[in-house]
Amino acid sequence: MGDADRLRDAGLRVTAARLAIMQTVRDGDHLDVDAIHQRVHERVGRVSLQAVYDSLAALHGAGLVRKIEPMGSPARYEGRVGDNHHHLVCRRCGAMTDVDCVAGQAPCLDPVDAAGYLVDEADITFWGICPRCRGN
Question: I want to staple 7 with a disulfide (CB 3.0 to 4.6 A). Which of 12, 22, 54, 108 is the partner?
């Protein structure tokens, strides 16, 4: 299924900017909004930063992109959705890497007390120093 079909199935209007955003997010590596805006601009020409924010919000709301908000850094976006993976973040340079489910079946970790919630996802961020910053 192509991106245009995904947008239609989600009830979103198909636009050149939205298609470029989806492709940019998929091709990128946990990009922030400024990087997405710059790359979309290179693909389709003039597009406002506000239009990128609005489109990302709509795409995230429709489950077509994932928004990751590591503490102390801007939100980032990725195209890998629906598989309950987690992230490793470097404390020095901010590099982010996907890590598959840590153990067992989704949601990977079970809280000791779910307080009546039906848990269907765990969002885990591991923090450390990446190999490049460690000099490896």
Answer: 12
